[in-house]
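User: two proteins, same treatment. go.

Assistant:
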Amino acid sequence: MNELYERYPRQISLKDGDASLDLLVDPSAQEIMDFAAALPSADLLFLNRNIQVPKVLDAWRESIAEGDIVSIVAKRGSKVLGTTAVVQDRLSWSAHVGEMRILILPEARDTGLGREMIQESFLIGLSLGLEKLTVRMTLDQESAIAVFEEMGFKSEALFRNHVKDNLGDKHDLLIMSHDVEGFASQMQAYGMDEAF
């Protein structure tokens, strides 16, 4: 885990310029509240909780402090472009599974940031020793689904009419997963685990 923390902060190059990645410690900071408020409500439907509510951001901060969530923030200057979180319930029967949550501002999409954030989440999963990573999204997030599929995630479940938006419209929820343990074993077999 220490090697993970040594990765940050760091710069990344995107199609529209550079951005910085760093560990997110305080999701209740004003810049994160501004970021959450700028997200379309449809982008939040896959989350268990609405991060546009301050007490949810406070709970996120507490979960980071307790080690149940590792979050990364992408910024350009002081503006937050995206966040990612790997959530682990270490007290459950599924302590070997982590859930990835990735949010990108609409204006920062199609720049390569989403792919970078997915890769960072994957590295976090590896560093935490997780065996499986899952991600949830609504079916209309077609470009995100395509990126996850390119990275080896497979569709695992589809829940019909599972989430309801602010207008009362229902949406299907897709769950995808990746066998992190199998991937790590393959990397090790080819001697690529040190490079990764």
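Protein 2:
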Amino acid sequence: MDADVAHLARLIREADAVLILTGAGISTASGIPDFRGPNGIWNTERPVPFDQFLASEVHRRAYWDQKARAAAVFGDAKPNRVHVACVELERAGKVETIVTQNIDGLHADAGTSPNRLVEIHGTGREAACLSCEMRTPIEPHLEAYESTGTIPTCSECGGLVKPATISFGQSLDPMSLHRANQAAERCDLVVALGSTLGVYPAAEIPYAPTSRGVPYAIVNQGATEHDHWPTLTLRIEGDVTAVFPQAVDLALVG
């Protein structure tokens, strides 16, 4: 038994309210490419900032073209062992909240309860009207765009519609951020999985709990921006889909 895995299992076993922060590194195992890595999406796709989406039909079309190309990849993705392990921890009564930076909806697909899940960068499963805020499933909008080339607008008010994800320059949903911060105040363990912890304000979430002495563990393949935190309890370099499920199994049955 790897000593670091055993250490993580012990932290989980001793906790009652785990805050789990997940990033793109857990989605890659489900076949979804990351955004910023060596083979990341932004190496081949230029992201469309929010202000450009608002200002120009040309940029709105570029944005919807990107979403249409990505739809097949996201649509085929299934939850992996990390998502399942998070659900097992929740069923054991140990999860305070899962805050995910991912927009793929795989935590929900795996069975994480809505009241335990904060999709802090939004979800690609829905579209949102930027005027009346009505939410609708994304698929009809993508299908209509691909078949007609018409940029989606709201059926209720005629406003601009975009996937309910957070674009560059777009503010986070205040309620999602509030829920994440409230979870940080209540948790007794923070575990970051598959994230470089370089995207803010999501990367700030561990600050509050660690400042009051809550243990903090990171599992990631590759460096993170929190690797040298003085309050970091445990840093495991490795495949999160192997390490975390093993630690959860050991914590729950060991």
